[in-house]
Amino acid sequence: MIKKASVSILVGAALTLSSVNGYAKTWVEFGSEYEQYSDQSQKGAPYNYEQLNSLTPYIRFFHSPDSNEWNVWGRVFKKHYPNENLYLNNQTTSMTDRAELHFTKVIRRGNWRFRPGVGFRYNGYDIDRYEKEYRLYPQVDYFLNSKNQLFANGHIYMGDSQGKRFNDTVAETYTDWGYEAEFGLIHRINNVSSIRPHFYTEYDDFDNNYRINYWQFRLVYSHKIGRSSIHPFIRYGLGRDVTDQPNETVPNHPDRHGASRDINYSRFGVYGNIGLSGKWNFIYETYYEFADFKGYNRDAPDMTVEYPDRDKYFIKFGIQRHF
Fold first, then answer.
1. Which of 301, 316, 297, 317 is nearest to 46 (CA)?
2. How many other CB atoms are found less than 10 A from the CB of residue 276?
3. Could you tell me the fold of the domain covering 2-322?
4. pTM score, two decimals?
5. Residues 48 and 41: beta-carbon distance below 8 Å
6. Which pLDDT score is estimated for 294?
7. pLDDT digits 0-9 by tens, 298-309
8. How far apart are CA 237 and CA 218, in angstroms?
9. Which superkingdom, per the lineage (predicted)?
10. How far apart are CA 281 and CA 88, in angstroms?
11. Residue 228 belongs to what H/E stretch?
């Protein structure tokens, strides 16, 4: 019921905003994403990574009035797993649904531009599990001059979750929290090109499960060609510490609490759009992800076992309609 309500609200908002007058900036996007992994089980992987292959049709929308003092955007998608038969009992335990809605306001004060906001995200599963995030966006920009801009983007969230975690025999409810942030510089090279070097960090605290502390260095080059744009990017992982935190002693693994391993990943790729007309855009993105994969091993000196890398190839295509 929660899934259906979230999807209905988001799609209804998209259709409503697409009918506003021409003085507002509004677009709706329909597309699909594909993620592909390779089978590394013969090299020692704990399972066939191909079970994670997914096809994900989605809908996105964005709306801002002519003054651009506030905006609202949202997204809904449904993930399909063509290799679901590789899961235990032929049922995927990975995320299958997402619906989210976010609102931000723009406040200008001299060289400062504040972009506070609120948001909601729901992740659904085919099993007895879900995650809900309630977000606050404390975002800000500072314009050094006409060519250089400092920025800080991101959010803080409180989570309401349900699922089986350490020692659970049935799905339990939990309260989680975390944040994501990116901060750095936008340098405008000329009227059509810019470069954005910045850092990204993510922290998640999942009760009776684990903590994640992740840092990346990111670099994006942007170039406009008429109505089109291209944005090659690099996201280099500086470290991603995953630390177990069961609330109770794990049977046969009393030292599991506090066991930590660096499960890092990096990406490189490109995204952008091709302007088909004044109203229509073709959206694209592709990247390759290099991903370490490590598990817990009580008998190892650092309680870590290394598995074959779980690399991923990603591609997305979409059509965007402006109103």
1. 297
2. 13
3. Porin (2.40.160)
4. 0.89
5. yes
6. 94
7. 777 778 899 999
8. 9
9. Bacteria
10. 41
11. strand 228-244
